[in-house]
Structures are given as structure tokens and as C-alpha cells.
């Protein structure tokens, strides 16, 4: 009973923590730390919420979540007889776990397929530019610069972006994209995008995904500014923001402009980094979160 | 001898430039690399058909190949994804920045002018 209660408390804490965290202000001062904390919150929430139900369900075995599930799967009869409540908890817990795993796998497969298609098309219609070695160029007047992540990541810019930006600005954009490639930000985004698809009505999940999207951009900006002029990166951002060659779809304008300005501001006026003690605190919290849920799955309190 | 990807690319370019469907023999005649074996051209045409980039129709004993969509349509498809306008918010790509419209673009434009003036 204690294990189930503690897991439920942990899941609730993660939920409330995420909700509070969506409005935290310090995140832009330490994007990487904030990303780590988001990942920890996500993993811990998933394991704790499903674990709480399953811990209650396998209580008749009296041997913890994981061992209890193994006993259940191998068909051993529990020490205490089943009652309706435990059966309901078992069904609910297994369903939730299955849905979570299925959603993550589906999102992963869909993303890989979309990338494969994108890459195949790029191979057929994009071309090299002697000025930008290693970068694929698309013949389109709209401004776009992006990265197709993968084992062999590809950086792509459109003809529109080439004519929009100066040479230094283009170098800054490419440094930014190279940072995405190097730090595998796509892998960071994937579970959050998947979760959002699984729970489209949840405001916390939606906000969390938007936050993580912004944070990886900030992290890439931070790495890029080591190799290029932050000012040029800022003007490149503004040029992209105002290019508007294609009508933008409804619903995400406000956030777009706000996020863009936030990135420009921190490039031009770097705020002091978060104090080391706070950063370590956030890292310690992340580690505790990530380890506590599996611990509670294995050991019974 | 060019790589297979390179060959697929030049064959698509040839077929996009034509207004009518071509047979493998006609494609082979238009290709720059004259030493190419006819079977290689057939193989590549077959591959492209299986991937859905070409449609083929029977013409007597030969097949005639034509692009399934125009080059511009494919460019547009990639650009829609690149600008995150497909509606599905997947994590397939990471983008540099999104364009903004309306009064908000004006704020950004002003910020840009200030930066350029300094």
C-alpha cells in the first residue's frame, strides 16, 4: 500500500511541478539544465503514474511492482485472493502503460518515416552550393533553414534564405543548425511531441512541449554564439521572423513573435548565468526524479 | 560510373524536362552518361516507380514512364514541412526560426532596423 501511495504522490508532484515549471523564468538562463529537468519530470511522471496503479494492483502478491507483475504474468496465485478493486487497477495500469509505450513507439516510427521521405525527396530535388559546402539548397523563394536529424543529419537552406541573409548571418544560422545536429535535439523533442499527441487536451503537456521547443533553440543559440557573432545570429533571427513570404497558419503567431524576441534579447543582452548552486540543485533534483520512480518499481516500501 | 542516387536524380531531371512519357530506351538516349547499360536505366526507372516518384503505362511491349508529380510540387511539399505548416506537430525537423505576420512582425522589423542602425 505504501509503495502505491508514494508512487501516486510522486506522479502528482511531477504533474504539479510541471505545471509550475511551465511558467518558470530562470529556464532561459540555463536552457540545458531546464531541458534535463523537463526530461526527468516526464520520465518520472510516466513511470510513477502507471506504477501507482500497478503497485496497488499487484498488492495481493506482496512483493513490489516489478516482481508482482512477473508473478502475475507467470500465472502464480497471489497470497491474498483477488478482489474487484485490484483487478480494475491491474487493467487500468496495464492499459495506461501499453498506451504510453505504444504512443512513443508510433511517434518514433512516424517521425523516422517522415524524415526518410524528406531525405529521399531532398536527394532528388535539392542541390549543392559551392559557397556552402555540405549544405543542401532548395529552390524556393521563401526563407527556410532547418536540419533533418538522423545518423547522417542534413542541413538545408532555401534559396529564399540565401538571398535574405548576409554571409555572416548565414554562417550564424549554420552554426545554430550544427548545434542541433551535434546535441541531437531531435531526440529531446521526440517524447514530448509524442506525449502531446497522446494527450492533446492537456494544457500542461502542450505548454511543456512548447517550452522544450524554445529551450532547445536557446541551447543551440548558446552553442552557436561560441562560433559566430551573436549579433549576426540575432539579426538573422529577425530577418527570418519578418520574411513572411508564406502566410502563416493560425494559432501560433503570438507565441512565435514572443519566443523570437526572447531569443534575440538573450543574444544581445546576455543575462548572468544561473548561480552554480541553483544549477546543481536542478541537476540533483532531475537525478532524484529519474532514479526514484524505477526504485519504487523494484523495491517495496 | 555515377552512384545510384545521382542516377535517380538525373533520370528524374530528364523526365521532368519532358512533356510526354518516355520509354527506358528514350531515357537512355537522353542521359549524359552514354556508357550506361540499358539494364541499369531499367533498374533505376523501376526503383523510382516502386518509390512512387514515377508512373508507368504499357505501350506495346515497352513501359512508358512519367513523373508522378512535378518538381515544384515536391519542393512545395518540403517547404511546407520546413515551415511547419503541415498541421502535424511532429519532431521530424528542427527549424531555425518561424516567420511571424501582422502587427507582431512590425515589432520585429523595428528591432531589426534599430540593430542595423547601431
Automatic annotation (TrEMBL), chain A:
The keyword Glycosyltransferase does not apply. Residues 123-191 form the Peptidase M48 domain. The chain crosses the membrane at residues 6-23, 35-58, 84-109, 233-257, 277-299. Keywords: Hydrolase, Membrane, Metal-binding, Metalloprotease, Protease, Transmembrane, Transmembrane helix, Zinc. One of its GO terms (molecular function) is metal ion binding. Binds 1 zinc ion per subunit. Its cofactor is Zn(2+). One of its GO terms (biological process) is proteolysis. Pfam families: Peptidase_M48 (PF01435). The keyword Transmembrane applies. Belongs to the peptidase M48 family. This is M56 family metallopeptidase. It comes from Nonomuraea rhodomycinica.
